[in-house]
Design a protein that fits this description.
Blueprint lengths: L14 H22 L4 E10 L5 E12 L3 E3 L5 H7 L2 H21 L5 E6 L1 H4 L4 H11 L7 E6 L1 H4 L2 H13 L4 E6 L6 H6 L4 E4 L1 H4 L6 H16 L3 E5 L4 H10 L3 E3 L9 H9 L1 H4 L5
Parallel strand pairs: 2-4, 4-5, 5-6, 6-7, 7-8, 8-9
Antiparallel strand pairs: 1-2, 1-9, 2-3
Helix pairs in contact: 3-5
Bound molecules: ligand C2E and magnesium ion (3 copies).
Length: 285
């Protein structure tokens, strides 16, 4: 940064920058350790419910890190570092493997649950991404791919053509490709229309209090209309209140995900949830 300011000027690191550097170094050392150690990293699973039937056929895998020094560290506090450093690539490989193992374990218990994993932009630039994914699928010993992919718009804008090819390859391997946080990025409708997607996930910022917000209602109705024209399924994420769910059901959303139904949970807790609450869920009338 100081170099950018020109050769004859120099800048003293501000305390704020110092903190950033120190944090980067801490993450660099400790995230590496966490990946090697057992049990520091785990996947939590959040159900997605079919609006028509109330059934749970899929979950989203969300990364959690329990650091021995700092306790629980949420993904937003380390994913961007991992993207910058490139560590997201081995980390993402771990997520894939872990999710594939879990999906196979559920299959062995006669539970048909697909698991969606999140990929960030940096992972899409990894030349081994598709190979890694197909290795994981093959090694899982399943005849069918049980993993789906969630991508954000930021994955698509840098290089539309290669994003297109990557999405196609994921689909050929049997994964459904979902566009995450839809409506918050900068991809255009024409771009969206060209991409071979399966699902869009409406960002939770539109869902929050949608039953009381006319602007959000208009936006969400328009997004759903576009999605239907393109034959895409629609997930609403961040559903927290009955009133929101009622509006979204009427508007034609296909799947609900949110605290109203289930938070992201560790495996055992999710299985209990599925056996109890998950079975008796009454969605909106
Ligand atoms: P995301 O993929 O959009 O995931 C949804 C986030 O919304 C999750 O936050 C989830 O816990 C939260 N959420 C779900 N339902 C509700 C609700 O009803 N209300 C509210 N307020 N929040 C809700 P989380 O787990 O903190 O993850 C944050 C982000 O970190 C994710 O956003 C995703 O972009 C990223 N992330 C998480 N795990 C991974 C991973 O394995 N790989 C990559 N590359 N990114 C990940
Ligand atoms: Mg997601
Ligand atoms: Mg999202
Ligand atoms: Mg998000």
């Amino acid at each position: 940064v100081a170099k950018d300011a020109g050769k004859r000027t120099y800048r003293v690191f501000s305390p704020e920058m110092d903190n950033k550097v120190a944090e980067y170094i801490w993450l660099d050392v400790n995230l590496r350790k966490a990946l090697e150690a057992d049990g520091q990293l785990k996947l939590y699973y959040q159900p997605k419910l079919c609006v028509k039937t109330g059934e749970v056929h899929s979950v989203e895998a969300l990364l959690r890190w329990d650091s021995p020094d700092r306790g629980r560290i949420p993904p937003l506090d380390f994913i961007s570092y991992a993207e910058e450093s490139g560590f997201i690539v081995p980390l993402g490989r771990w997520v894939m493997r872990e999710a594939a193992k879990q999906a196979a374990a559920w299959k062995a218990q006669k539970l048909d649950i697909r698991i969606a994993i999140n990929l960030s932009a940096r992972q899409l630039t990894s030349s081994t991404l598709i190979q890694d994914f197909s290795d994981v699928i093959r090694q899982s010993g399943q005849s069918q791919c049980l993993l789906d992919i969630e991508l954000t718009e930021s994955c698509l804008i840098d290089d539309e053509i290669s994003a297109h090819a990557i999405i196609r390859q994921f689909r050929e391997l049997g994964a459904k490709v979902q566009l995450d946080d839809f409506g918050t990025g900068y991809s255009s409708l024409s771009q969206l229309a060209r991409l071979p997607l399966d699902v869009i996930k409406l960002d939770q910022s539109f869902i929050s209090s949608i039953d009381q917000n006319a602007t959000s209602q208009t936006l969400v109705r328009a997004m759903i209309a576009v999605a239907k024209q393109l034959n895409l399924e629609v997930v609403a994420e961040g559903v927290e209140a009955e009133g929101e769910a009622e509006f979204l059901k009427d508007a034609g959303v296909d799947y609900f995900q949110g605290y109203l139904y289930g938070r992201p949970m560790p495996v055992k807790e999710f299985e209990e949830w599925l056996n109890n609450k998950g079975k008796r869920l009454r969605l909106v009338a």
